[in-house]
Amino acid sequence: MSWGFLHHLLNGMNKYSTGIGRIWVAVVFIFRLLVYIVAAENIWKYEHDEFECNIKQPGCENVCFDHFFPVSHIRLWALQLIMVSTPSLLVVFHVAYRENREKRQNQKLYKSPGEIDGGLLCTYLISLILKTGFEIVFLILFYKLYNGFKVPSLVKCDIRPCPNTVDCYISKPTEKMIFLYFLVVTSCLGIVLNLSELSYLIFKYSIKCYLKRYIKKDQGSEGDCHKSEITGHNRPLCVEYYAELLWYKQKEALYMQSWRNLGLRCRTVRGCTAFVR
Amino acid sequence: MDWGALHTILGGVNKHSTSIGKIWLTVLFIFRIMILVVAAERVWGDEQDDFICNTLQPGCKNVCYDHFFPISHIRLWALQLIFVSTPALLVAMHVAYRRHEKKRQFRKGDQKCEYKDIEEIRKQRFRIEGSLWWTYTSSIFFRLVFEAVFMYAFYFMYDGFRMPRLMKCNAWPCPNTVDCFVSRPTEKTVFTIFMIAVSSICILLNVAELCYLLTKFFLRRSKKAGNPKHHPNHENKEETKQNEMNELISDSCQNTVIGFSSS
């Protein structure tokens, strides 16, 4: 059980994401997880051993280290990676629930269980909000716990049993600071990607909703969903087909334009199958 | 999850690369990543423990080590390898997007779609032309930029590529100028020079690939410009117009059957 598990999780999540979601997964894997495992972990590996205080008093070093590093940077980083990846599970569970429901009732309830619409859209939006929330919370936590993102090379400590104010030296402070800034930048990038995905989804679905309502108003109330004069079949045109109808109307307008460009015009009234110059 | 995961991600891009791109990827994995993991990491493993300063003053060693090695060679190489591999993802994303579009066309039952099943789409190898050419070329360009930037950063930070045996340090709290000794300086120098040499080879491979792609592009353009001279102009126009009309008729017939309002 290690980071490979998270890797599998996020890979599974990739199927149900939008394009921006997939970019976010790639950023998390490569710039955060991979950098953490191959580089950052080793920097903080011996931080306690290499933490040195200018005193021989037993216990002073331990107490001072604990005072200045209540939770080590690297552990906070690992926690952040785990918490930020977990909201994606909500979406995976919801899709599994949908598939289960279809199997139990033995009929097709959804156009596609993995398609982001209806309840799954709400779940997806909630997962995005949670991800962004966790990122922001951890950044604030880092900032508050360590007074900014700088790692000092020297800290002064005067907690018992240190007899008076002693100088304590942190190992590799510059390298740690560089990687902390790297963490902050990738976190901010993650936040930006999440927010843009959120706004993209909200925009896309509000346009869809608006169009559906507009077409519904144009065609009359839902009670008019009966014999269709458009298809010529006795198939009721209901709300979910209005979007499709709009698509066909747009295509028709395009074709009419192309025919006009070629110097043709429609001879028939319904559906152009015959032309005249 | 480690370098193996990167290998899996980039392995997919290999299919759509040129031959020089495939050589580059092999060099990257065998002569850089593998060497880093199995050899270089061991050499730098005890760098701080065995960094010894000629003083008993607590804290002096830490401060001197931090002053001379703001970021360890190993970490810099790891970052360089990650950044240099990342542009290939642009190509992977573009290919995935194209595949997705083709799958959508196939599912809609488009007559223009020439594939027999989804598996064929998944296994198909895309040629590097059109927008994919631009993505691929920009990925090579970014690779070059990252390699150059990291090599320069290396040179700038460590004043060349040699690892000295002895460094003189007088940062506080060291009482005066103390001698500090680096562990395994010769071995580190050898590996540094090796990694720099392989970096340079990778840069050359990228430049060669870039030239190859540009040459191909210009050759293709001159061929396209040359071809229409063989057919008389007006015949070609009539043919394309007829083709367009036929396409429109067949499309509109399909749409009339499915459902189409003329209002």
UniProtKB/TrEMBL annotation, chain A:
Domain Connexin N-terminal residues, every copy: 42-75
Membrane topology, as annotated: Multi-pass membrane protein
SMART domains: CNX, Connexin_CCC
Principal localisation: other
Cellular compartment(s): Cell junction, Gap junction; Cell membrane
InterPro entries: Connexin (IPR000500), Connexin_CCC (IPR019570), Connexin_CS (IPR017990), Connexin_N (IPR013092), Connexin_N_sf (IPR038359)
Entry's Gene Ontology BP terms: cell-cell signaling
Protein name: Gap junction protein
Subunit and partners: A connexon is composed of a hexamer of connexins.
Pfam families: Connexin
Role played: One gap junction consists of a cluster of closely packed pairs of transmembrane channels, the connexons, through which materials of low MW diffuse from one cell to a neighboring cell.
Tagged with keyword Coiled coil: no
From TrEMBL, chain B:
SMART domains registered for this protein in UniProt: CNX (SM00037), Connexin_CCC (SM01089)
Residue ranges of domain Connexin N-terminal in the record: 42-75
Keywords assigned by UniProt, alphabetized: Cell junction, Cell membrane, Gap junction, Hearing, Membrane, Transmembrane, Transmembrane helix
Keyword Cell membrane: yes
Transmembrane segments: 23-40, 77-97, 132-158, 191-214
InterPro entries xref list: Connexin, Connexin_CCC, Connexin_CS, Connexin_N, Connexin_N_sf
Membrane protein topology class: Multi-pass membrane protein
Gene3D superfamilies: Gap junction channel protein cysteine-rich domain (1.20.1440.80)
Domain of life: Eukaryota
Gene Ontology terms: biological process: cell-cell signaling; gap junction-mediated intercellular transport; sensory perception of sound
Domain Connexin cysteine-rich: 146-213
Main location, first listed in the record: other
One GO MF term attached to the UniProt entry: gap junction channel activity
A Pfam match: Connexin
Gene Ontology CC annotation, any one: connexin complex
Subcellular location per the Swiss-Prot or TrEMBL entry: Cell junction, Gap junction; Cell membrane
Keyword Transmembrane attributed: yes
Family of the protein in this entry: Belongs to the connexin family.
PANTHER family per the UniProt record, alphabetical: CONNEXIN, GAP JUNCTION BETA-2 PROTEIN
Subunit details: A connexon is composed of a hexamer of connexins.
General function of this protein: One gap junction consists of a cluster of closely packed pairs of transmembrane channels, the connexons, through which materials of low MW diffuse from one cell to a neighboring cell.
Protein name: Gap junction protein
Organism: Bubo bubo
Lineage: Eukaryota, Metazoa, Chordata, Craniata, Vertebrata
